[in-house]
Amino acid sequence: MKTSLKFAATLLLISNLSFGQDVTQKIDSIINASHQKNPDIGISVGFIKNNEEHYIAHGRLNAESPNEINKNSIFEIASITKILTSNLIAQAVIDHKFKLDDYIDRFLPKDYVLNDNLKNKIKISDLASHQSGLPDIDFAKLIELNPQQPVSNVTEKTLAIMINDCTELKDYGKYRYSTIGYTLLGQILEKVYGKTYDEIIRAKIVKPFRMTHTLTKDFNVKNITTAHNPSGGIQEFFKWNVTAPAGLIKSNASDMVTYLKAVLNTETAIGKASVMAEKIYYKDEKREMGLGLNISTDDQNTIYLKSGDSMGQSSIICYNRAKKWGIIILLDQRNSKLRQDLLNQIYDTVLK
């Protein structure tokens, strides 16, 4: 019996290794074909299946560097930051700091004075699922003012004025993507924990899970990629400011796979919070939303995903809890079409 068990375990190990190698080869083939067509775009991909990690990368850190992109190369994860913020929100619920259906009024900084029409109207879950109805920043205008650092003109003062001047929630309860919503969530976290957003995310996500290449402030590191706008021009990384909870974190494939491992493990704080974030908080004929997560369901799969676009880079994260896989795709150019095409090809040929 012992011999049979050992033999079965050996077969299982060989099967898992074969599966992992096969998946990696298929994903690498897709990424390599894409890089051949787009040689100026650097790509880094991290994949996890049943807790096994796989990494694929193509391209160089920049045009002048001989150094190849690898799993430790730093990219802007942009709006993928929002799922980290929403995970912190869910952790705060678990910590009994507030409830998701609590109104935001008493959790906002003192500089915010909501109009009577807005009082006891907006729930914390409304902010996290993009249905608050609050006005958002005008990115087109900000880009005109400062194309390299558009969010530099967004301050705590300008945010307070925008919120305080709002007299009506014209589309409350309807989906409208919101940077302001996640900025407010970050400020709410700061109030309930009595710490800065930077301190909170480092204490609850970065340090416990040893995500040593996930950066919140100092981006002057050796293994950083160069960002490019859609035309191929060099674009600066966004600098940290009040909008950080909505999209200013930098990371790499290795750390994001570490995050995915924590998400898929319901024994971790991140995993427990992720289960809460995966519930449906908004639904219409076009989409289902969790807390910061898009939910996509077909006959066989339910996947959770979030994309991110800075001015110079594109990324996407996706996972399937039931089948225990997750993937992160990072590009060193703002190219949402290529990012989505890569995910679609990998999903249809490998993951589905």
From TrEMBL:
Q: Which GO terms describe its molecular function?
A: hydrolase activity
Query: Which keywords does this Swiss-Prot/TrEMBL entry list?
Result: Hydrolase, Signal
Extract the InterPro entries matched here: Beta-lactam-related (IPR001466), Beta-lactam/transpept-like (IPR012338), Beta-lactamase-like_AB/R (IPR051478)
Question: Looking at the keywords, is Nucleotide-binding present?
Answer: no
- Superkingdom of source: Bacteria
Q: Which family does it belong to?
A: Belongs to the beta-lactamase family.
Query: Beta-lactamase-related domain: from which residue to which, for each copy?
Result: 41-338
Which Pfam families does this UniProt record tie to the protein? Beta-lactamase
Signal peptide limits: 1-20
Q: Which organism is it from?
A: Chryseobacterium phosphatilyticum
What taxonomic lineage is listed for the species of origin?
A: Bacteria, Pseudomonadati, Bacteroidota, Flavobacteriia, Flavobacteriales
Tell me the protein's name: Serine hydrolase
